[in-house]
Amino acid sequence: MLAFLLVVGVSYYAVATSLIGLVGDYLFTDRRAQDQTGAEKLAVEVAPLYADARMEQLQSLLIKAGGELGGRLMVLDGSGKVQADSYSQLNGTRVELPEVASILLDGKTVDYGVHQLGGRRSLSVLSLLTPLDTGAEWAGYCTVALTEQGKTIGVLLFSSPIQDMMQRLVSLQNRMALYFVAAAVVAMAIALVISRVITKPIATLTRGIQRMGRGDLSVRVPVKGSGELRKLSETFNVMSQKLELLDKSRNQFVSNASHELKTPLATMKILLENIIYQPDMDTDVRTDFLSDINREINRLNLIISDLLTLVSMDSKTMRLNRETFKFADVIADVVHRLSVVAEKRRQEIKLQIGDSCEMYADCAKLTQVVTNILDNAIKYTPEGGLIRVRLIRSGRDAILSVADNGPGIPKDDQPHIFDRFYRVDKARGRDTGGTGLGLSIVNQLVLMHGGTVSVQSEEGHGSTFTVELPIHQG
């Protein structure tokens, strides 16, 4: 009897899903044809305006066409960043949609998709088998390649609301739900039979969570079966592993900080004991000892200052004091100040400014970013070496690169170069007076501005640090 009910339920489920799929396909095909026709015609007018950088005309065209088509229009460059927006809200923002990627990466000329706004859910025939959120907003995304002489130079993105279509689908689903009540009764009967099978892995997972709550972050649960329970176990294990790594990282940070603070203290203790127990010490030697103590005190102050900076950033208490300034002036000023240090090492700093890069950001914090990177390059570049500092503008991004011809960074060390207290050459790092926190501070400050910092290096051929910052206009 149960088998019979199960067969009936499965058969009805197949018929219902096929019906929903057919209706969905019809609605999608009709809407897709409308949106693609309008977007493709508009792309022909947009392409030459974008290619010639006639942004004011382009913006006016997008606003006008957006009103006629009943949606939002955006022009994206080859990296997926918005260069023009009919709403003037997302300029400079990177749009990560599969429809955009299919144009830029897969070589398509046109694509279309439906997504739920405010979430990651995209709509397809398969997604119609699950309940739709009646309160959610849905939008259709149509992308068309912008071409010049057969080459794709950007993407036209047309976003249109499709609430009317979704309401019809929701209405259809609600009616189908009434007929599924009988199938639910059958499902409950089957659930009683298989509940024991399901309960066992849940109980195991519960015990694992309880052990984690008691502080045992090494706990893992066996991954068995398939479906949601398997995904749940895998997700728990991944979470547990990340928490364990985070705990180890925290302990390592405390250990490193203690070591960095203990080293100058131990040095000062030895020097002071020599002064105390040798009252007849030569005056010049005593002066040298006191000078060494003073340098160690300065080193302690520097470490503590950097630690407080990192703590402030970690606790989210640090705020950006934005103002409008020219990034090129900041870089030129830092190069001028540090050129004195470079000249003592017979190093040459070559500065190349491609654009003033006027931006709305925290001038003091970006000054620290440039200072830390250039100071690091000076320290690790041999005497007589060359350091190249270059600033260019790419779209709505300012790109700063600092390249040296120093010893380079081994590949195994490069993923950790922005870790706190990490040094490629520990002994050399202390000789140069570094705290091991400079690049970590750079990384955090750049992230606070919504940018990225990276390093490219090869042993024996120097290193290049690249900072990419969005230019926000105040």
Task: Characterise this structure.
The protein has about 475 residues and is of the alpha+beta class. The chain folds into 3 domains: about 1-180, 2-Layer Sandwich (Beta-Lactamase); about 230-315, Orthogonal Bundle (Helix Hairpins); about 320-470, 2-Layer Sandwich (Heat Shock Protein 90), CATH 3.30.565.10. The chain is built from 10 helices and 13 strands. Strands 2-1-6-5-3-4 form a 6-stranded antiparallel β-sheet, with helices on both faces. Strands 8-10-11-13-12 form a 5-stranded mixed β-sheet. Strands 7-9 form a two-stranded antiparallel ribbon. Helix 1 (about 1-50) runs antiparallel to helix 2 and helix 4 (about 165-215) packs across helix 5. The longest helix has about 50 residues, at about 165-215. About 25% of the residues are buried. The model is unreliable at about 125-130 and about 425-435 (pLDDT under 50).
Secondary-structure element order, N to C: HHEEHEEEEHHHEHEEHEEHHEE
Radius of gyration: 31 Å
Number of strands: 13
CATH topology title of the largest domain: Beta-Lactamase
Provide the number of structural domains: 3
The CATH homologous superfamily of the largest domain is called PAS domain
Q: What is the CATH architecture annotation of the largest domain?
A: 2-Layer Sandwich
Structural class: alpha+beta
The first-to-last residue Cα distance is 72 Å
The general outline is flat
CATH uppermost class of the largest domain: Alpha Beta
Report the average pLDDT across residues: 79
Widest beta sheet: strand line-up: 2-1-6-5-3-4
Main beta sheet: 6 strands, antiparallel
Total of DSSP H or I helical runs spanning 4+ residues: 10
Residue share in helices?
Answer: 40-55%
- Low-pLDDT runs: 124-131, 426-433
Fraction of residues in β-strands: 15-25%
